[in-house]
């Protein structure tokens, strides 16, 4: 199951001067096309879901499919929330399976950007999840989603970038050096001098948003100056739409499945072209060797209850479930009662975490600590707790 730690994945790219693609997915066609392309190129890949796109689909449902695809992949995969707008959306994305978070407060002023990004980073790191912050502003030009990034672009200042990375603790920095969100009008002019200065100033892998429309030489200059991740969507949306338009011209009465017949192939070709151009194709094996596998962790509690507590066991479990479910890094809480009477242990809790770091931190969580001491321990007998890590 090559779902891997995004931090390890991107450091391999950073140290070897290439970039991993993070492709925003808006439907199953995108998901299948992207993962198939990564498999056939033997490339690491980041499956990305962007908060501004959540109006187009139910992201809880899509994320289940994304996680299933990641777990059955043979190439290293990470799952990212792109353009997360708040602490709450980052917490939820991690609960739903993202193991990388991009927080986008780039339209805020410097200190507000630092405040939100720090809060997300602190929470995400307690879950073992790495974070991309963005400084400077990448504005939208035209094309799908461009209107969600209004206003003028603001290039990232190297002097601010250093302070920003130190104060927020982000693992990766998305920078603004001349790309645009959406479709480019003509050829973008990238500020490589600034990029070099940023790379020297911050010492963490850099990220580019708005990669659609750049040429091979431009990508090459990005990856040789610290860019280890490229977020890419508009060009995929454009080739998918073009494939559908072509079909609808050919068969005016075509069914839905007829019209979208060539969509997957069109997206797949574009993704393969990117993976080759950015230098990640053919490197899956060495990346895998370098990466921590992203294994779920489970905290199991089994117990009986003392005679005087038997009536309150339902409310005890409901209350515990409510408290545990709200802790960042907890993915699922199962509570159950033994199916056979006179079982050695009558009650069970299984709390599933996103990563072992989340489990380590959860014991210190005030809400859980209070619940364990005041309620569970007071009412339970023969209490056994065991931690398990999933097998690869
Ligand atoms: Zn973006």
Any overview of this molecule?
The chain is of the alpha/beta class and 392 residues long. The mean pLDDT is 93. Helix 2 packs parallel to helix 3. The protein has helices at 6-15, 28-41, 59-72, 87-95, 110-126, 158-168, 192-202, 216-223, 234-250, 256-259, 263-277, 284-290, 313-325, 356-362, 366-379, and strands at 20-24, 45-50, 77-84, 100-103, 130-135, 172-175, 206-209, 227-232, 297-305, 330-337, 347-353, 380-389. It has an eight-stranded parallel barrel, surrounded by nine helices. Strands 10-11-9-12 form a four-stranded antiparallel β-sheet. Strand 5, helix 6 (158-168) and strand 6 form a beta-alpha-beta unit. Residues 83, 181, 209, 231 line the site of zinc ion.
Concise account of the structure shown:
With 392 residues, this protein is α/β, with parallel strands linked by helices. Helices cover 44% and strands 20% of the residues. Zinc ion binds at residues 83, 181, 209, 231.
List keywords for this structure.
392 residues, alpha/beta, eight-stranded parallel beta barrel, four-stranded antiparallel sheet, 20% strand, globular, binds zinc ion
Specify Rg, calculated over alpha carbons.
23 Å
Number of helices: 15
Number of strands: 12
Arrangement of strands in the largest sheet: 1-2-3-4-5-6-7-8
Uncertain segments of ≥5 residues (pLDDT<50)? none
């Amino acid at each position: 199951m090559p779902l891997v730690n995004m931090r390890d994945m991107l450091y391999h790219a950073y140290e070897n001067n290439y970039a991993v693609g993070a492709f925003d997915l808006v439907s199953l066609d995108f998901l299948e096309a992207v993962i198939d392309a990564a498999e056939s190129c033997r490339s690491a890949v980041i499956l990305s879901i962007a908060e501004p796109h959540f109006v187009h689909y139910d992201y809880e449902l899509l994320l289940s499919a994304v996680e299933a695809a990641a777990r059955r992949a043979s190439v290293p995969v990470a799952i990212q929330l792109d353009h997360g707008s708040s602490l709450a959306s980052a917490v939820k994305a991690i609960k739903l399976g993202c193991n990388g978070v991009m927080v986008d407060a780039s339209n805020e002023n410097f200190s507000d950007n630092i405040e939100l990004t720090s809060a997300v980073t602190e929470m995400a790191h307690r879950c073992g999840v790495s974070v991309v912050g963005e400084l400077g502003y990448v504005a939208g030009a035209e094309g799908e989603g461009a209107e969600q990034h209004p206003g003028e672009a603001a290039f990232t200042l190297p002097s601010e970038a250093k302070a920003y990375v130190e104060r927020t603790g982000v693992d990766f920095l998305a920078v603004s050096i001349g790309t645009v969100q959406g479709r480019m009008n003509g050829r973008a002019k990238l500020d490589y001098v600034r990029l070099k200065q940023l790379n020297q100033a911050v010492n963490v892998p850099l990220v580019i948003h708005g990669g659609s429309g750049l040429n091979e030489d431009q990508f090459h200059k990005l990856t040789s100056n610290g860019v280890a991740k490229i977020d890419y969507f508009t060009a995929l949306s454009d080739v998918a739409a073009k494939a559908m338009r072509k079909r609808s011209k050919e068969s005016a009465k075509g069914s839905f499945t007829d019209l979208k017949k060539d969509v997957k192939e069109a997206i797949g070709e574009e993704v393969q072209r990117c993976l080759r151009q950015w230098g990640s194709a053919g490197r899956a094996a060495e990346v895998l060797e370098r990466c921590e596998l992203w294994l779920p962790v489970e905290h199991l509690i089994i117990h009986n209850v003392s005679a005087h507590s038997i009536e309150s066991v339902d409310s005890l479990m409901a209350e515990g479930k409510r408290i545990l479910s709200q802790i960042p890094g907890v993915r699922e809480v199962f509570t159950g009662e033994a199916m056979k009477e006179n079982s050695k242990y009558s009650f069970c809790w299984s709390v599933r975490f996103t990563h072992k770091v989340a489990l380590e931190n959860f014991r210190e969580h005030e809400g859980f600590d209070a619940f364990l001491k005041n309620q569970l321990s007071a009412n339970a007998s023969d209490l056994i707790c065991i931690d398990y890590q999933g097998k690869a």
